[in-house]
Each structure stands twice: as C-alpha cells, then as structure tokens.
Amino acid sequence: MDMPQRYALIIAPADAADPREDFADTFTPIDVTAPALSVGELSTQRGDGVFESIGVVDGHANEVEAHVQRLAHSAELCDLPAPNLAQWRQAVAVAAAHAPAGEAVVKLILSRGVEHGPTPTAWATAAAATDFSTVRRDGVRVVTLDRGYDLGAGERAPWLLLGAKTLSYAVNMATLREARRRGADDALYVTRDGYVLEAPTASLILHRGGEFVTPAPSGGILHGTTQLSVYEYLESRGLTTGYATLTIEDVMTADAAWLVSSIRLAVAITAVDGTPLASDPALTAELNRFLLSPR
Amino acid sequence: MDMPQRYALIIAPADAADPREDFADTFTPIDVTAPALSVGELSTQRGDGVFESIGVVDGHANEVEAHVQRLAHSAELCDLPAPNLAQWRQAVAVAAAHAPAGEAVVKLILSRGVEHGPTPTAWATAAAATDFSTVRRDGVRVVTLDRGYDLGAGERAPWLLLGAKTLSYAVNMATLREARRRGADDALYVTRDGYVLEAPTASLILHRGGEFVTPAPSGGILHGTTQLSVYEYLESRGLTTGYATLTIEDVMTADAAWLVSSIRLAVAITAVDGTPLASDPALTAELNRFLLSPR
C-alpha cells in the first residue's frame, strides 16, 4: 500500500488533440491534507474513473509510456474523454520531480468528474513507497480465490470492464483482506472454470521448462506494465517468454512463480494454498535490480 | 440519475455503541460546490466504501430503517466499522429537512476514509430528484446483459461483495451505457447460467399466474429496499409474493414486470431485447402512489 501523499496537483484535462507542448498552466499544486474534491465527485460516489500507479526511483518515473497508454485504454473502455497523453506525461514528470528520494509512487487519477459537470476531474499525487525489501527477498504466500467469472467473461461482456484499471477497487481490496484472514499475504484469482488470472493488484509470471509464461491478457485480465517490462528484460537476455492459459496445477508445478507490479515489483510466490512452491532467489533479485533501474 | 446536490453534511462517525440520543454536534454542514474531501480519500482512490440512496417526498424520507440497516450490512461485508444507526437516522432526518420540496434524494456515503487515516469518512447529501413521471407512466425497454457470474458466485465468494452496496459502481454505470448504446433504457443482468438477477440500479419484480415473484436475494444480488416495500404493500392487499430462481423466459411470459428502486420507484418493463412485454398500467400507477406516500 502507498504511504500518505506528500505532493499532489490537480490537472485541468486538455483535449486529446490539443497540440501544445507545455501544459504547465493546466496544473495546480494543492495541499494534500486540505480538501480538494467536492462531494459531487463521481470518483467518490461511484468509483467512476480510471487510474495508474507508477513506480519512481530517486525521482525517475519508470514505464511512463506504458502507464499513460494504459490510462488511455482504460478511459476508452469507460467511455471517458480521451486523455491528452503529452499532458499526462508532463504531469508524471512534475509529480515525480516532487517525489521523495528512494522509492516512491506517482498515482494518476482520471475521474468522470463532478456529477452533471462539464469535464472530467484529474489529479496526480506523489508519495514515498512502502518498504517492500523484505517481501522482495522472502516472497509471498498466496491463496487461490474465486473471481466468479469464467475465462471468456471479459471478451464476451466488455461492460464488466475487466480490462480497465478503474477506481472501482472495492472487490480487489476485499480479496486481499480475505487472503490475510486465511493467513496468506496475497491472493491469486481463479476463474470459475479453473484458470488462474492475476492477483488483485499484480500480474502472475511462471518459469517452467526453460520458458516464462503469463496468463494471456484477454478482456478478462489487466495487461500488466511490469509484466511487459520483465518480458522485455528476459527477452534481452535471450530467454523465451509467452502467453498461455494456465491452471492452478501449472502454478504448483512451476520451477518458480512471481507476482509482479509497479511498486512492489517482483515477489516470489513461496506457497499456494499452504503448499510450498519452488523459487529462484537469484533470478528474483536480478529482476528487482532491473525493475529498480531507470527505464 | 440525481440532480446536483443542494445540501451536504459531513458526519464524524460515532462508535456503534455510543448511546447518545443527539448526534447533532457530529454533523458539519458544508458548501456542496466547495472542496470537502482530500485526494487521499479511499472512496475516490478505490471506490472503497458503501452507500444508500433514499427517496424523499416533501421532506419525508421513505424506508429509512431498511436503508440504514442495509448500510450496516454493506459495511459489515466490507469490514468497515459498524455504523451507529441512531446517528445515521438523525443524519437522514437533517438532510431530508434540507431537501427541496417535491421528490428528492438523500444519499448516504460511508467511505473507508483517508488512506492510513484513523477513521472512516462519512457524509450525507440532499438534492432534487430527476423527474421520473414519464418513465413511470411509459415504462422502460431493457436489454439482457451478461453479469459474468453464475448464480452461486455470491454465496461461494463473499469477497466479490455482490450483496453489498459499495461505491465501486463503475460496472453498473458501464452496463447502463451499453444498454443505451443498444437503444434500450435499462439493462437486466443475467447470470452466465441463464438466470435473471436485477438491473444495475433496480430490482426486478414479476407478476405471473396471480403471484408476484422476484429473484431470490442470495449473496449474488442486492436485497432491494423498494422491492421489500412493494411486497409489504401487495401482501397488505392480500396478494401472494415470493422469491424464486427466474429465467429470461419467465420475464418474457410474465403478466407484467417491473424494475423498482428508491428514487425512480416502479417502472414497467415494456420490452426485453426488443420483444414487447405485457404490462399493467393501473397496477404500476397504484404501486407508485403507494411508493410516493409517507412510509
């Protein structure tokens, strides 16, 4: 989880076609502890908006392009006005410049705006990241939890917004609480028909038989920016990566398994539903060194 | 949809066991157009909280007890601190007293609060309601849309929060947009295994063979406060009501079908996926006269 915000700026959303190179006059820094949003905000009333969490290391924001592109994709799935990507890139840069040293997180939020209002509401925050060094070293125990959907639900029913990173995260948070109640650190979502999908806030990657695989990003799964980065890294080392339909059995019998995400980065799955899993501490450390480097 | 808020008060949540009779000093009226919430609010960041919308007619709030009880039930499902019901009843009364004449809506919101903060954030708003007189007279055309889940998902997987009225309503809103794209006014959610559940913001009631039926409120469906009121009314008239597992075919062949909710009240379903449905304008009008009367 993030630490309290230290810096925030309100963004007056520009039209996607606005050709300006400098959007500085659309940013308004605010006091993060002061009231900034009205109770008419649809983000608060209905979780109606989209977001991104970007890892920042010593002021450098990582994977910015993948994050702003996914923000635009999520906005499209939610019928929100297309964000101006140049404006959002600049907002990330400004927020990252105000982030504390070490590991930090820049969060982008694009809300549908105030009810009956003319435009979306948008803002970015910067805060120190939680210290995840222990879990990066020791890994996480996960429990498998039913996502309720079958594997085809996302493609069949795009109004379920399974491919969008929306502000409606109550279920993701409830799933993490259930995992902790069961004595685990995290959860692995499983479809009704027995396939593994992702964790509530992370993607799954397996190493098996010399190949790295992750569940195919269909409409039912969020395409992980960190997973894409890890794949680029592995491929640059000449390793084979791919997408597949995976079962719990595939996870249990993998040579190693990780949950990867933008802030916690790569953590080994050390147990699934109480059964220990093989892991690869050297490769985990190597992946995290890569993920902490400027990209 | 609601109109812009006209009145709002922030509620400092009291402990559920607080025995006070007067909570007036825990209410702070605010300017609804002014900033009131910080960007650290988990309602905005993750749709992490619960809510209720209460119908108000000429200053009288209807079904208050059912709504505050459901708020408490939703809070429990979301592991939020139990609300003090006396405090919330009083908040409803204060907000309703400030609601405009005619039909209005009082909305209650209980958020998990500011990230890493000590307590939930809570507020109530009052606003004029949209004029639904035309749709109450003419009814709505619905399309059936896949909810992705099977009928047992809610009971099997309580972390999906299907029985809680959470602020994570992005999917409900996307479903209504999809219905409108398809030329309909509203949607009827159908399970993966072919059963009808509810509309994104309303409950379904059918009249068939002299009996009124609604889908059984399992963990997979929100128990509608208006549906309960309608059942009480029908029973007081000596009519038979019940709960059942219902299919689309049951809707298509019903003598009449309604969507019922706290603000729009009872509206006839006049078509399902383009096929006209029988309706009962006299009973619809009677139900709405009852629902508009003080209860």
UniProtKB/TrEMBL annotation, chains A, B:
Report the superkingdom from the record: Bacteria
Tell me the enzyme class. Answer: lyase
UniProt keyword annotations, A-Z: Lyase
* The EC number(s) this enzyme carries: 4.1.3.38
What are the record's GO terms for cellular component? cytosol
Gene Ontology molecular function terms on file: 4-amino-4-deoxychorismate lyase activity
Which GO biological-process labels does this protein carry?
carboxylic acid biosynthetic process
> What's the family?
Belongs to the class-IV pyridoxal-phosphate-dependent aminotransferase family.
UniProt-recorded name of the protein: Aminodeoxychorismate lyase
Q: Which organism's genome codes for this protein?
A: Microbacterium esteraromaticum
